[in-house]
Design goal:
This protein has seven helices and no strands. 1% of the residues are buried.
Length: 143
């Protein structure tokens, strides 16, 4: 005697589930409406946080007896490594001379180069340029 699988074999392989439309039940609606109104009327900040003058009650923690405390804490040796000796700070490097300012091309040369370049080449040049070069180029191009 085994499991009868004839119904499973006869069932269609692909089928849509049975869909139902929602039904309105006035009794259920009348039960839920007051709760929804109460939730809308009370802001969550008043519900979630206590008043500022209310302090939490102090709950005393149980303290074990002295004999129990001695038994509860076994002595454990902790080995610590010695602290490394403080090193002297390295001498500060000699101040370097400020780099010479880059010679900027003339505004005529900048306009000629700008007209010759494609958009992609302009964007690549913009990424390579410093803030001073960008400001000078904008002044020359009237931007």
């Amino acid at each position: 005697r085994g499991v009868d699988t004839a119904q499973r074999a006869a069932a269609p392989w692909h089928a849509l589930p049975h869909f139902t439309a929602p039904e309105f039940n006035w009794q259920a609606i009348l039960i839920i409406v007051p709760e929804a109104i109460a939730a809308v009327e009370s802001p969550p900040a008043h519900v979630a946080t206590p008043a500022p003058d209310v302090k939490p009650a102090a709950v005393p923690l149980p303290v074990p007896a002295p004999a129990a405390r001695a038994e509860a804490k076994p002595k454990v040796e902790v080995k610590t490594e010695p602290k490394p000796k403080a090193r002297r700070a390295a001498p500060s490097p000699r101040p370097r001379a400020a780099p010479a300012k880059k010679q900027m091309p003339s505004c005529t040369a900048i306009k000629r180069e700008y007209d010759r370049m494609s958009f992609t080449e302009r964007m690549a040049a913009y990424r390579r340029a410093s803030a001073d070069e960008i400001a000078y180029g904008r002044r020359c191009l009237g931007m």
